[in-house]
Write a structure and sequence with these properties.
By secondary structure, the chain is an all-alpha fold.
């Protein structure tokens, strides 16, 4: 009986420690994500601009090839 009770306490302690660690990690990730969201927005804008420039270049090359 004492062995199973001891095992139960160990499971509770281990679960509490792991749950707290996981919660801290998730909170930290969310905080980091929101902190750098403006950087991601700028990168997305730059990527869109680059994509539009590449499309213009491809269209220009196609036009030059057809003439």
């Amino acid at each position: 009986m004492m062995g199973s009770q001891k095992c139960g306490y160990m499971r509770i302690i281990t679960g509490t420690i792991l749950g707290g660690t996981l919660g801290f990690f998730v909170k930290h990730q969310l905080k980091s994500t929101t902190r750098f969201s403006h950087v991601q927005e700028k990168m997305n804008e730059r990527l869109k601009e680059y994509g539009s420039k590449m499309k213009k270049t491809e269209k220009l090359e196609e036009f030059e090839d057809s003439t």
